[in-house]
């Protein structure tokens, strides 16, 4: 089915051959291609398009120069200084500082709610699983010991 479509010589859009001639006539009269992004733009809007879309701006977080129309994407997915959440303390930390922050944060200790021992945060989840199992076994053994003593 894709072979049935043809591309406009001006805007490069794909369309059915039956519509191509009319589209190209309109496209060549009323649209120009942006020299930077190659997108079709009305001639009256070309300058505005280039200024607003392709203007260089600075990322407020990392001070990198980015095209204005790409800034939002850069800040959300590419910026090395965008805020991300620490998996231990849930604070917002710059991505570029996250590894060192989580190293220090994960080495802090908290008391285990089950056994009362101080455990490093980076090991707390694994310890809790093991500790719960050990506590359950101790309870089971204690209950078994108590029921055997009462008979």
From TrEMBL:
InterPro entries: Innate_Immune_Apopt_Reg (IPR051986), TRAFD1-XIAF1_Znf (IPR049439), Znf_RING/FYVE/PHD (IPR013083). It comes from Ceratotherium simum simum (Southern white rhinoceros). The keyword Zinc applies. This is XIAP-associated factor 1 isoform X1. Residues 95-131 form the TRAFD1/XAF1 zinc finger domain. It holds the Pfam family TRAFD1-XIAF1_ZnF. Gene3D superfamilies: Zinc/RING finger domain, C3HC4 (zinc finger) (3.30.40.10). The gene is LOC101391848. The keyword Zinc applies. Keywords: Metal-binding, Zinc, Zinc-finger.
